[in-house]
Structure formats: C-alpha cells, structure tokens
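Predict structure. Input: UDP-N-acetylmuramoyl-tripeptide--D-alanyl-D-alanine ligase, 477 residues.
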Amino acid sequence: MLWTAAEAAAATGGRVASDWVASGVSIDTRSIAPGDLFVALKAARDGHDFVAQALEKGAAAALVSRIPEGVDNSEKLLLVDDVQTGLEALGEAARARFGGRVVAVTGSVGKTSTKEMLRTVLSEQGTVHAAEKSYNNHWGVPLTLARMPKDADFAVIEIGMNHPGEIAPLARMARPHVAMVTIVAPAHLAAFENLEGIAREKASIFEGLEPDGIAIYNGDLAVSGILRDKAAETARKSISFGETAGTHHRLTSVQVMDACTVATGRAWRVPLLFKVMVPGRHFAMNAMGVMAVISALRLDRALAVNALAQWNPGAGRGLREQIRLDPVDDRLTLELIDDAYNSNPASLGAALEVLAAAGTHDHVGRRDKGRRIAYLGDMKELGAQEVTLHEALATSPWIEKIDLVHCVGPLMRALWMKLPREKRGHWTETADKMAEGVVRDLDAGDVVLAKGSLSMGLGRVVDAIRKMRQAPADVDG
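Output follows.
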C-alpha cells in the first residue's frame, strides 16, 4: 500500500468519492500496472484522454482536474484543481512522511549514471528508492517522490534543468540530506550566458538541503569556487572530490582498461582502491563522488567498494555488449558501446577516451585488423558556440586512436569537414539514413561507439547494430 484515498486526498486537497488503495503511481498507460494511481498530466497529450484506458487496465484511481469523457464512474477519481500541482503536493507529502535518508544528484554530465551507481552501492546497506528512468524535471522529481515507500532506508533523487531557476524548487521539494554536483560543463549554453551561469544553477541544489545537510561537489573545475561558496552558505558541511590537490576525496590514479576502470585515491586520510566494471575516467570520478556520499552518510566504505565492482551503466549510457555476427564461429563478434542517450562536449570527450582505450581483435573479419569506429550525432543546446565546439572535437587527443568517425546531423558536419580524410567516414542528415549502412560498414573485430543528443536518434543506429546479432547455431555433435 502506497496511498489510500484518504491520504492522497489530504495530501493534494482533492476530493474522493470512495475508498481505494494505490500500490504505485503512473503517468503512462503503456506501462501502468494494476493498482496504480494514474496521474493525468498534460504534456504532448492530455492525460485525461487516457483515464478510461487506465481504469480499464486496473488502475486504482486517477488524479484528474475534471471528469474525463468516457468515464462514468467518478468513484475512482481524485479531483484536484490542477494535476501538476496535485502531483507536486503528493510528492511533498511522501517526502514529509519518509523516515530514511535522501540523496539528490545534479550535474551537466553523469546524473543518471551516478544515481544508478548510488542505487547499487546503497542497496548493499539498506532498501533504496530511485527513479527507474531519468525522471529529473518538473514532473519527474515529484513523481519519483510520490512513488517513494515510506519505509525505505534511502532515496536517490536526480534533478536536472534546461533553463535558469529550475533546480532550486525541485531541491526544496526533495529536501535532501546530501546533495551532489557531479560536474559543470558546456551544456544548455543556449539558455545560459556562460559556464558560470550553469554553475550557479547547479549549485542551487544546495538550497534544498536539510538543516544538517552535506554538500558534495567536484573540486577540479574552473567554476568549483561557485559551488564551494554556495555550499558554505547552505550546508552544515561540504566535501569536494576530484583529482586536484586539496580535494577531500581525491583520485590519485586512474587506469582505464579494456573492460573496467581501476582507481586509487584517498578519502581524506583513508586510502581507497576500487574498480568499476566499465571503462572510463569519468566513471571513476563519479565513483569517487559516490564514495564521498558514503562518507557523508557514515556508511560502510568496504561494502561500497565491493558494490562498485558490480555496477554497470544502463542502455544508452555507456553499456558495452558483444554482438555475435556468425551463428557458428563465436570469434566473429564486434563490441558495441551504447552511449546514445545524450551528448555534450564533456561527455563526448569521455566517451572518445573510452573508445580510444578499447581493445580490438585482429585477423577475425573481412579486414586484417579490427577498428575503433564512432557514430556521432549533433550535440544540442550549445548556443552561439555550437559550431566551434563541434569543430574542436577534431583536435581531441583521442581522435588519433580512432580509425573512423561517421557523423550524423548538420552540426556534426562541421566536425566531419575538419577530420583527416583517412578518418572521415560517412556523413548523413539523419540517424535513419546512417542506420541503413551499418551492416556494410562494420566487421568482426571492430569496437563501435554510438553517441549523440537524444533528439538525434542515435539509438536507431544502435538498434541496427544489434540486429546484426546471430544466435548460436544448434549444432548436433
């Protein structure tokens, strides 16, 4: 039982006509489960148009601002003046009754992977509630809170933004005991004048801290001073992490290997050695931030280090998988690095470093040598500097170790034109067009990265690569 009708009505100031019990909260009839409270949000479509369908699928009730067409039984409705405001009130009530510890995470890069890292690490030391997806905006945060079981030990809340003034209200709603900024990097520059503006917005997560709250921030940045000053204003204590001398949780070495990352460091005076089972310096940095959270919550570091070695990024966020290309010969494989969910200069640089460090396999395909190949889509919301930031990727130190770069979108054409001819793959306007050629472009022994802003649809290139997979043949004898 998550919400009774009486509890939900008291939380939202709404009106109910019968008793019901909700075991979950949903905004999508495609994934709704029997017993969920359906929230009829207005987004691309008006959720009121789907209330009847939600009730037919077994929803316990629906949170609405009017009686929808096709719904004859108002006994399963929770009527409020405004659905978004009602969802926010439900989230605030869930937070008020929660007895566990809350961690909030924001940053230009690494929010969702750090949230998932925290879920894995904290699960070894108690029950954890966190959003299944990247629910980090004005409806995602209250939805995550509204779904929060009152008896969980920990909750991890991801908070994002596209424009100034978005983070602080969500942080105040979440009221974290610990708040973390992973990194401040050029992203959403179309809505901010400069990196300092982005840093001030990210730092506003600390405004939501509980009175005894702890602020954790990346100490390696040109704008770390902005984070530090805001932490000093709002937090009882602050912890910096990074590679710079003087950071409280400091990485002293990072070894990016083909299938994992091994790091050493210090949690002030305590030496640390940990492994993350995915390659990438940025994952090691996020892991050090997670260890700072563990320190802030006074939890067991040894359990946390062991749990880090079990974590893997989700699909679209650096997930690596082997694609078998032949049903009989298991040597004929290529490796896919699926990082297609989002992209900005910082995260793309980190992904290119991972690809540059990846091991290929020779003498297994049509070509003698395996190759490192990138499919890159436009990085969006970079403002007036967008063309320059795309062109600058051509001088990345990692490009030298990458054999071929295919580019998707008008902005990535700027990079494509700057690449050395021997590294210049195809350029297409759309991901659909690029996806048509992956079968002829790729071979056994290759390692392939796909990365771009979500709206560029590089996931379709990933899907096309996955469709090359062949199941092992059932060979008798």
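The two ends are 54 Å apart (CA to CA).
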